[in-house]
Amino acid sequence: MIDHVQANEYLDIYGPLLTQRQQDILSLYYGDDLSYTEISEELGISRAGVMDAVHRASAQLEKYEQVIGYVQKKHKIIQLCQEKKYNEITNVF
User: Fold this and answer.
1) How far apart are CA 75 and CA 61, in angstroms?
2) pLDDT 10s digit of each residue in the chain, 93 long?
3) With b meaning 16 or more CB within 10 Å and e meaning fewer, what string describes 1-14?
4) In angstroms, how far is CA 12 from the centroid of its own chain?
5) Are 93 and 76 in contact (CB under 8 A)?
6) Residue 66's CB: how many other CB atoms inside 10 A?
7) DSSP assignment of 20-89, as one string?
8) Distance CA 77, CA 74 (A)
9) Do 49 and 40 form a contact (C-beta atoms < 8 A)?
10) C-alpha angle with apex 17: 64 to 40, nearest 5 degrees?
11) Nearest-angstrom CA–CA distance, 4 and 31
């Protein structure tokens, strides 16, 4: 499973591709750092349901990044800018 920093970045980029319910659960889990139990109590669903939703939606975010690669490209562009290798940016695409 992805770490919290990655998850928040993926959620910012690919979140709209998830259902609203998935977005809400991931936002509570990764953004607000709530536990499965806390989320289940807040949303009125089972702890197992929350755990399943987090794992499935996180896997979807990872799949989106594997296919699209936006975050990886963004990080590469930032790295090239920091290294002042501006002419290499077009090679990222």
Assistant:
1) 17
2) 788 899 999 999 999 999 999 999 999 999 999 999 999 999 999 999 999 999 999 999 999 999 999 999 999 989 989 988 888 888 887
3) ebeeebbbbbbebb
4) 7
5) no
6) 9
7) HHHHHHHIIIIIS---HHHHHHHHTS-HHHHHHHHHHHHHHHHHHHHHH-HHHHHHHHHHHHHTT-GGGG
8) 5
9) yes
10) 100
11) 8
Tokens at 15, concatenated: 């979140």
Q: Which residue, among 60, 72, 71, has the nearest Cα to 25 in the 3D structure?
A: 60
Question: Tokens in use for 71?
Answer: 């975050």
CB-based burial, 17-37: b 16+ in 10 Å, e otherwise: ebeeebeebbebbbeeebebe
> What's the DSSP call for residue 5?
H
**What's the pLDDT at 86?**
84
